Amino acid sequence: MPHISSKKLKEEEEKILKSRLVDAFRMIGKDRRVSYAIKEFLTDTEMIMLAKRLGIIYLVDRGMPTLEICETLKMSSSTVIRVEKRMDRGGYQNLRKALKKLE
After folding, report:
1. What integer is the mean pLDDT of 67-94?
2. How far apart, in Å, are the Cα atoms of 60 and each of 48, 63, 66, 76, 87?
3. Fewer Cβ atoms within 10 A, N terminus or C terminus of the chain?
């Protein structure tokens, strides 16, 4: 499981860091060596965590039942339900559109 420091950043510092992360992904996305850059940047654990989260979004969008998603992705029902609830409130719209384009 990824760990984050218990020492909190100032809100403005966190906002700048997140913005720079998005900018970095934009730059990586323009390069043909995207997969190499991402593999250098993320740990295996982080890649699996993000891939599973995308998997939940994709499978929920396709109407797969919660328990089947849990079994397929080897995840707890509480994690899947949390993502489902966020989706019910309109969350992940941009990711959902992007995933549909990848089909």
Report:
1. 94
2. 18, 5, 8, 14, 9
3. N
